[in-house]
Every structure is written in structure tokens, then in C-alpha cells.
Amino acid sequence: MQQQQVIIIGGGVVGLTSAWWLAEAGYKVTLLERNEQVGIAASYRNGGQLSYRYVAPLADAGVPLKALQWLLQKDGPLRFRPEADWRQWRWLASFLRNCNAASNARTTAKLLQLGELSRAGMAQLEPTVPPEAYAWRDAGKLIVYRSPDVFQRAVARPVSEEARLVLTPAQAVQREPALAALQGSLAGAIFTEGEAVADCHAFCLALETRLRQHPNCALLLKGDAHQLIVRNGKVAGVETSLGLLGADQYVLAAGIQSRDLAATAGIYLPLYPLKGYSLTAPVRAHDLAPEISITDFERKVLYARIKSSLRVAAMVDMVGADASITPGRIAGLKRLAREAMPQAADYDQATAWAGLRPATPNSAPLVGASKVANLWLNVGHGPLGFTFAAGTARILADLMAGKAPPFALDFLQPRR
Question: Would the keyword Oxidoreductase turn up in this protein's UniProt record (predicted)?
Fold first, then answer.
């Protein structure tokens, strides 16, 4: 059988891992990235957490009421700006339908399976991209809770008991001294082993280098995709800033840009850009930065030490496709970080970032075949692109080769 040509649109962590797994499966891969560097959009300065065993879909029972409360908080985790765009309202309607305990439980169970597959995939990549190339550390994850009621509900959730430790505030501070300033505000904490932190952008650069050396990697192109040309139910080519490109198969892995590109092929993707922010603050010799990955549950703030920097990530702004940095949100994130861990890093020297995370209403990515015969999807990972990229890349490669997926995909499939 003649070697199949595949074009992957998108050079973030999802597109790059897709390219690697497809190249390993024997496809001749061309990867198209519109930016000057790979991994420079949503993958660039994300939270830095590889959270395989703790997943919390945004849609859950009680979230709509909480969202109203967050909107009234000065430094609350949510901002919302209504748009004259039917896609925003359709996404919101679907999100609200998923805001119930049963839907949340189903999604969580499936994402935990995907997390384990991704963990195995990253281990499989170790000989190719060594962990030291992207500052990977098996840091563990500590989720801290301020509300006794919220903490007790978290403790009662049906999870693998051997994978976690339930801690008192004093025990949490003993395990992670950087939390000392928060001890009086905490109701408790849950520690999960096996969770990691790493530099997603460094991982993208390292994987790009190995892809360029792969015999099945044809080209890594810098160009912008404008339109998918569909004829007789198949993609005949993709119109780009470099001209018309053709292949046998096509993969959309371009983050929120995938929504508009899919529309040119007559496909609606239930994606919305959830804008998030991060700070990367230098850690000085005398600073008390956390060694464990921290999630401040009620504040919705993540802390991860990556080499000599502290990454602080938070917030969900539903403001359309505006990726600009909002100074007020960055000031608010600094206030939250200083309150929680005042001695952890030099926040005055922190660099700010904002990115658009392509999210589905139930937080489950879209992986697999579209309604167009030779167009495949690997999109919608939201804030967990780094966590799930290896798993969805493996699933995509299996499906494109006609193999059964490693577990029942259910609503991970695009046609759900």
C-alpha cells in the first residue's frame, strides 16, 4: 500500500504529538503552524501541570450559581462578556446542560482513562524526548481547600484511595512549607502521587527537533491555513498563505482556529476560547517556592515550580477570541499569589501571559473522524492540552489506521 500523506494543521503540543504518533505509524507527515515558532499559542506558558489523576470538568452541579458569585468578586476566576455571536450562546446552552452531577461523573471517569493513557504515552516518549529536556519533575499534586463543606465533598468523591492522602491543614504545611501563610485559612488538603510538572513550550521545541529528524516527517511549514477545500465529501486541499497544499488525510489540531477552519468544510465544532492567564516569576535563593504542584481549589489558582521559576496560572475569561493581556487580571493574579505564598518568588519581576484554551462544553476533547471522509479532529482539550496530548495522539493514530481504540471513546468522539 502506498504511504499515506497527512497534513496536520497546528503546531502546539496536540499537533506535535499527533505528528509524532502518525509518523511512527508510517504516515508521511507535514505539519503546518501559522506562528514563527511551535508551541507559542495556548501551549506556551500554561499551568505547567501534568494532572493525570485529578481532573475536574468545568461543568458541574452548582457551577451556574457559583459563576454568578465569581462575577461579583474583584479577583474572581470568571469574567464574561456577551457577544453577538451565536456560537457563544450555543456553547453556553450546551455547557449548562452538562452542569449536573451525573454528566460530571461520566466525563470525569472518561478523562481519568485518558489521563492514564497519556501518562503511558509520555513514558513511551522518554527515549525520544528525555524528561530533562523540558524540566519534568514527579512533583505530586496538592489540592488545598478553604471551605469545610467543599473539602468534605472532595474527600467523599469516589476515587482511587491508594492514589491520594487526605491531610489536615497542619499536615499540608508540613508536606509543603510554602503553604505556611495559608494554614489558618485552610480546611484541609488532598495530596495525589504521580502528578508531574514540566515546561510545555520546552517539550514542544524538543519534540519538534526530533520530528525534523524522523524519516516520515516530510515538512514542518510556517504558514497560515485559510480554508479547507471539500469536493465530493472529501478534503481536496487546504488553502494556505503558502498556496494550496494537498494530502491523503488531514488533521485539525489548531486550537480555537480549528473552529473556523472546520466551518469552511461545513462542520460545527462545539469549541469556545476560554482565556487564561499566567505569571512566570523568578525564584531567588532565599525564596520559599513550592516543590509540590499546588491547586488552590476555591481561588482556582495553580502553582508549579519549573526549574528556577514559579508558574502561577488562573482565570477563565469568556470574552471571545481576544488573546491580549488585560492588566487588571494580571494585577489580580499577583494579589492572589502574594496572599497565598508571599515568599515564594519575586512577583515584581514576573512576566505575564494570556492564551485562548479551546474548550468543549463538557471538557472532553474531540478525537477522531469528522463527517468529511478524510478529515480528522484532535481538538478541544481546554486547559489540559499538555496533560492529554500524548493520549489523544495515540487514539488518533489508532483510529486512522483502522485499529480499535484502547478504551470505549463514548463522548470523546466528534459525533457525540
Answer: yes
